[in-house]
Amino acid sequence: MDFDSIAQQRATQYENMLRLIGRQRAPSEDAAPALAATRMRSVVNCDRIAEAYRADAKVAYVSEQFPTEIVFAAGVLPWNIESMSNMLAQSLDIDQVFRLTQERELSRDICSFLRGPFGMMLAECYPRPDFVLTNDQPCEGLLKTIFMSGKRYGVPTFALHTPNLLDQDALDYLVQQIEIMLTRIAGVFQSDPDPEFLRSSIVNSNRAREYYRKAALLLERHALPGVARELLEIFGMNYFGAAENIDLCKTLYEEAVVLAKAEAPTRPRVMWIGQTPGESDELLRHLGRSVDVLYWAPLWEANLMALDEEQPLRSIAERAIRYHWNAERMERDLDHISDAYQVEGYIIANTWGCRNMMAIGPTFRSLAARKRIKNLTISIDPVDRNNYAFPHIKNRVDAFLETLQ
Amino acid sequence: MTRPDSIAAAVEDVLELHRDRLALLAGIDRPKIGYLSIQTPEEILLAAGAIPFRLTGEFSTETDGASVHLGSNYCSYVLSCFGEGLAGVYGFADAVVFVDACDMRKRLWETWARTVPGCESWFLELPNDASPLSKSFFAGQLRKLIRRLEQRYGRPIGEGALRDGIARCNRTRELMQRLYDGNKRGSPLLTGQQSIDLVKAATTGLKDEFNDRLAALLDAAASQQPRAGRPRHRVLICGSYFDQPAIVEVIEATGADIVCGDISNGVKYFEGRIDADAEPVAAIADYYLEKHTSARCIDTDIRLRHLFDLVRDYRVESVIYFALKFCDTNLHDYPYIKEKLREQQIPVLFIEGEHNGSNIASIKTRIETFLEPRFF
């Protein structure tokens, strides 16, 4: 496609996106206190979103836990197609988006975090990508969705296969795949991979991660309003490798230090396990009135690990394998997190269509029983409101909260 | 073995291996190892002296217990296989091999290990493409499987045993392909359900018995005259794990033939041939990755090209795309495959069902409405 056509298409897509997200549900009355880091993240997000619609921007669709360090090393903007789903969930026009997917006969049994982005593409709301990068994380459904997006736009698609079991063979295999991918990305721009850009991206990632990890550590011993959510948002944004992310994580850490000194009163801590609704979701607001909600994924060992600057691809590969759904590893992780953060309750949230969470949930319930941690399993759909309504589960949530008093 | 004196008897002879599979397997004093995915290298299990058999999920229709562990919004083939495990149907087996064939089977691998005592749960990585790098990695995984089997049964697996395993499986492929060649030329020798049951008989793991009986069937069929009368409409079935006698019956009752099943209980099981002259492990790895055209394969165009080849070779007139409810990979692929089939003016009908017990009344209406106008 020539430059003018891309420019025209992206301009239309930008207008469509603004129209969609401009029609928001009513804001909550008791929104969480906004941290400076939250406001900063909004600015960074706005900037990158607007940038991605410019005709000369280099845009790569990426999956949720894709190693964005290699995207930034190529000077490309990563567009995380799934992370937009929560924003989509707030739009009054969401049903139109899902209707488009149904007209294409995409099953409603598929996770709404995947149907949403597919619909956004059909509605011409996402910026046209220059190419598509994917791995099989966090699930094969996203892999399928993102691979199909490459076909939709007729652009190159490069995929990684992440083994499930961590050993030297698996690491070697994944490292070699990443090396091939780097060459292919450079090939799109008719250049060679630049090791210096990759080194710089890895350094950026580690600097940001260090602040991120220190903020997470402070959360172990202190009540830090808003920090757990911000850790989740930064995890979902997956902007590690970009210079802006260092400032963002540093700001979050510095605020966490101040909040720790303020010694906010402690409340029972509940760990949210599973896909998470947007912050303004009524269930989360309801929980937030009586307990402190922590989020599981940002505290995973894989998400807190630093990359080896001498062997960056190897540590990227290791992180990727550790990110995979795996009952044994996740149970071990959760066991440790529960102790470190003094968690008193689990909310295990099955999103309609998430087979991984559904099947691993019983492992967490067993862990909760062994550790005498109260737990509640709920079926929700934070994106497609045709599948779920908060009043249907409110009684169960209230009964669970009473057990924590 | 006495030779059957009619085609019908020869068919019954082969299908008996499936019908009596549990009793047959339980009665043989050799290690038995189960599997779910046809990407499992039976050759290696045979080389270890084991009988590799496929779990069919049809011997325990009770899935409530399985749903407690895996969830109810789950692929019913996976739930049924797990239900069999929980019910002790495979008490005679030493282990089940779970290939990385989809997310739900991965979760079953983990859950099986925790909940089914006495039958080990083994995992085999499976790349989702057939690049040289992936083939090399997969060959390494196969070597790990070989080491595991050697440790488990306390005997080495040499090249000779691997070559023997390859030869026996290649023989099955060759015979099955000969049978299906008839479908390409004209009307099928077997009914749709017999064809499916034949593949299930092949996956009972009694390779030599199966090969002998199928060879006898082919001999008996050699003198068979082509079916007289007006040619019937030619249907291909593709999609999820498919073993739906009621749907097959409805299709055939309309006056159509199922000439090809692009399914794991169909041609996907026996396509191609392993290079018997190459280094065995590498040859096995190459074969399984190159023939991989399921929905789990990352690039749907590979699956689609294979489907178009089948449509051409079997002179298919209509496609029925069957997806088990919650079979995500097949559900994801459908909009794209439908679009591409329609671009080629190939009619396609989407049917969704459960492994044991779909709502056949509504499906019947849809199939009749789809197929009947195409006969005139």
TrEMBL record, chain A:
<protein>
    <submittedName>
        <fullName>Benzoyl-CoA reductase/2-hydroxyglutaryl-CoA dehydratase subunit BcrC/BadD/HgdB</fullName>
    </submittedName>
</protein>
<dbReference type="Pfam" id="PF06050">
    <property type="entry name" value="HGD-D"/>
</dbReference>
<dbReference type="InterPro" id="IPR010327">
    <property type="entry name" value="FldB/FldC_alpha/beta"/>
</dbReference>
<comment type="similarity">
    <text>Belongs to the FldB/FldC dehydratase alpha/beta subunit family.</text>
</comment>
Automatic annotation (TrEMBL), chain B:
<dbReference type="Pfam" id="PF06050">
    <property type="entry name" value="HGD-D"/>
</dbReference>
<protein>
    <submittedName>
        <fullName>Benzoyl-CoA reductase/2-hydroxyglutaryl-CoA dehydratase subunit BcrC/BadD/HgdB</fullName>
    </submittedName>
</protein>
<comment type="similarity">
    <text>Belongs to the FldB/FldC dehydratase alpha/beta subunit family.</text>
</comment>
<dbReference type="InterPro" id="IPR010327">
    <property type="entry name" value="FldB/FldC_alpha/beta"/>
</dbReference>
